[in-house]
Amino acid sequence: MSVTAARGFLASGISAGIKDSGAPDLALVVNRGPSCAAAGVFTANRVQAAPVRWSRRVLAGGQLAAVVLNSGGANACTGPAGERDAQAMAARTARALGVRAEEVAVCSTGLIGVPLPMDRVTAGIDTAAGALSAEGGEAAARAVKTTDSVHKTAQVTEQGWTVGGMAKGAGMLAPGLATMLVVLTTDAAADAALLDTALRAAVRTTFDRVDSDGCMSTNDTVLLLSSAASGLVPEAAAFTEAVHTVCLDLARQLVADAEGASKEIEIRVLGAAGEADAEEVGRAISRNNLLKCALHGEDPNWGRVLSAIGTTSARFDPDRLDVAINGVWVCRDGMAGEPREKADLTPRHLTLTVDLRTGEDSAVLWTNDLTADYVHENSAYSS
Amino acid sequence: MSVTAARGFLASGISAGIKDSGAPDLALVVNRGPSCAAAGVFTANRVQAAPVRWSRRVLAGGQLAAVVLNSGGANACTGPAGERDAQAMAARTARALGVRAEEVAVCSTGLIGVPLPMDRVTAGIDTAAGALSAEGGEAAARAVKTTDSVHKTAQVTEQGWTVGGMAKGAGMLAPGLATMLVVLTTDAAADAALLDTALRAAVRTTFDRVDSDGCMSTNDTVLLLSSAASGLVPEAAAFTEAVHTVCLDLARQLVADAEGASKEIEIRVLGAAGEADAEEVGRAISRNNLLKCALHGEDPNWGRVLSAIGTTSARFDPDRLDVAINGVWVCRDGMAGEPREKADLTPRHLTLTVDLRTGEDSAVLWTNDLTADYVHENSAYSS
Questions:
Q1: Among A159, A155, A222, which residue's Cα sits nearest to residue A195?
Q2: Residue B282 belongs to a domain with what CATH number?
Q3: What pLDDT digit, counting tens, does each position of B306-353 carry?
Q4: pLDDT tens for each residue of B132-179
Q5: CB proximity under 8 Å: B 80-109 to A
Q6: ipTM exceeds 0.85, yes or no
Q7: B171: domain range?
Q8: How far apart are CA B181 and CA B165, in angstroms?
Q9: What positions does UniProt annotate as the active site of this protein (chains A, B) (predicted)?
Q10: B-chain residues within 8 Å CB-CB of A308?
Q11: How far is A247 from A199, CA to CA, in rounded Å?
């Protein structure tokens, strides 16, 4: 049920003709209230798309009545005209819904550097407004797909309230944030402050720890809207946990659907002298092309894990590093441990465990293998 | 002529049986003097192979009588036994040549985590010592190849003195240093201090700016040995320039032969407010898998260049970035410039120019495209 799993929300997804293929490419998510509290997290990339600049600005007030999203064009690196286009999308949506433009967030995804076909976009917004329904969550999730092979939705229902959401993203997946658009909704009566706290906490250990290809997008946006339609004020910890669960579910769906991937790799870094150390080590491993090729080839090449760890500033002793692949400790004390042949790398899901043996902290990251299909998908045409 | 282009040096390369294929895998470079001054630069990876630890230690005195090198095994992550093996290689070489073990550097390359077959290595050292000749430079260069498709040598002759050298490296090419072994020799009468100064200056803008796949090796070593056999004391600037020329020649050969590469990409970052900014931007671009796939597909996807620049901390205004591909300014002021169709990406050599328009500093880096062949070469077998 995606963004319409929670009460108080309408959504739609339609084909506006932005994509040449005729596939769905425009979505609306509308908050019918009574509350319009919202929070958002945006890409850390310093080159930011016009819709990111717009949405960041309108979200400063902690209120959103609607989100308009399009695939088929990122509206990034499009200059002053792109800024006007993002604003025009908000204005047209606001007019169709009877709200103010400053209550409408805008999200775009697709090729960088190409202007949007605004005549089609504005006509599409009107069509999408006419198609809004309380069952529109799935259609909205489909309309934001780019190279995604499947649409991604998740939801959690707690004592009387729900957190649901949708995500898109298949390439340019890297931290701060991954390349993606995510809209989460809830009918819990959470104010903007709680939404912000819960969202930041959840993103930090989910979307921010997905690193498919080390490439950071110009358009990443994660929004969380509350309608308060349940009338129930959630306990903060339970609400944060629910948001985390939905984010984690969506984040793992992103990794599972990463471009060309044949393996989903969970990197568990243990025994770190600080969470930052664990995260740095996990990130270095997740970005190591040579290792990701080896895992694609089902080769338990732990030497490439150690060479990746060695590039970090984390605290460790090279002669006390342990590495397990799918539970087999192929490296002990920085050298060969159990026979590498014992590690079975044939499953799609692989777990790589690193024990730094210097402390008690840990972090989990998710990545995938590097495949010829990834190269093909990102070289054969512009995306 | 490689390492034997300069007078006073002997070299050899033989098959010791370390590689199953029977290909050459052991090389010696011997300095006959009268001087034995030497300098070295080693990997910045904190996981360092036993031969790197050994060579770093013996080079502290600024003197080297010989270098023994093997391919077919990195002797990295091999624990205390690996340390003993590296020392045994130096000791055996020293005995065969009548020098002290503390005057012998050791370099190894190949798979990480596997012990060397020391019986074959020691027998091979004796064979190599018997094969030493003043024409042995090419044979030595061939014996250090791993996945290299060709051996790499370079030389420069100035007023009466020569700098020559050999390099190996085809994957795990990344800064600090690239994955490689390099031995340079000169018959100029340069003392250890000048050798060190010239080598560090040269490496900083050559090998340290090669970034093939963002992966940093455990075994990188660059050595420079002087025999002083010319009897000529070089002018420091001319000597530094000659070392730089040889390093640049070898560095570009490394990029040209990078695993699976179909494009050699020169990244020129101009208009930076500091060389460090220029280098950081160049490095971010050189590591962007999505861009490297696009260039492989001959797609002038400048949006991926901007998204890479945006991940750096360099000083720039996103709305004033210019990007040219092979001389066509496809991005001006952070948005589409000349028609992207005008950029011809069919040549093997591509030049990507970024003008940050914030200062006067610049840097040049070299990388290559990301190809299905790279994935195949690094997934089909251990290396």
A1: A222
A2: 3.10.20.340
A3: 888 988 899 999 899 999 999 999 999 999 999 989 999 999 999 999
A4: 999 999 999 999 988 788 898 999 999 899 999 998 876 544 444 345
A5: 82
A6: no
A7: 2-256
A8: 11
A9: 179 (nucleophile)
A10: 215
A11: 9
